[in-house]
Amino acid sequence: MDSPPLEKWLEPAIAPLDSWPTKTAEAKEIQKAEREQVISQNRFCGIENIRTIAGVDVGFEQQGAIARAAVALLDFQTLEPLGVAIARMPTPFPYIPGFLSFREIPAIVRALAKLTCKFPAPPDVIICDGQGYAHPRRFGLACHLGVLLDRPTVGAAKSRLIGQHLPLGEAKGNRELLGDSGETIGVVLRTRDNVRPLYISVGHRIGLDSAVEIVLHCTPKYRLPETTRWADKIASQRGSNKSYAHLICAPNSSDEKSPP
DNA sequence: GCGACAG
DNA sequence: ATCTTGTCGC
Length: 260
Prior knowledge:
The chain has one domain (8-237): archaeoglobus fulgidus dsm 4304 superfamily (archaeoglobus fulgidus dsm 4304 fold, 2-Layer Sandwich). It is an alpha+beta fold. Strands 3-2-1-4-5-8-7-6 form an 8-stranded mixed β-sheet. The protein is globular. A hairpin with a 5-residue loop joins strand 2 and strand 3. The longest helix has 19 residues, at 100-118. It has 6 helices and 8 strands, in the order H-H-E-E-E-H-E-H-E-E-E-E-H-H. Helix 3 (100-118) packs across helix 4. The structure holds 2 DNA strands.
């Protein structure tokens, strides 16, 4: 199996992989430094002009300590799938809360490279399975990936890392601000009735309101079961086992937070 | 010191 | 992330 060619827009994210950190002390310094490059306001074509959007799901295989990433590219207007790609590799960094990006980004970049083999243009927006600004050092996975690629990203996590919020209504569309240290760091968004909310936060080059708008746009069509099955099918054709590629939410509803 | 803790 | 057990709603 030879490596697929790496497209030009991915090159800035390739170089850092050679000097990838292995300790939290080093990783923390990188987070503090790269944080300065994050743009938390809209610097993209505008939601009306988005052509393609990529959903990135990350995961871990206990057996073999494998980090994995699945990317699903969609036509933003029709939400029709344009392709999926999956990458697996030994974990370059252990899972430590607050440092997820160091375990997953190498696999994400690899998956994006496979995707660009067939779709040369970079995605207009990337929705990430993890936090963005809603992070102890304001530099979650979505921010990290966005800065490395200098592409618009949104953080869409399935559970809370930090922050507090008022009780959230059970109806679709309900939302509450996620706050930390007197600052708004994200939005808790109910994407479907009686379904666990998503934790939306700014990644790179997109404001919080636009991030919520973009996620809601994708929600009616893409939710966990559909896209997982969809990516699994592609994966089996390529000889892999499992895969994940959801954009939006999973069933259940147990955890909610109360006001401070 | 104790609990919390994206995936 | 993953696994198990029990409960509830459609």
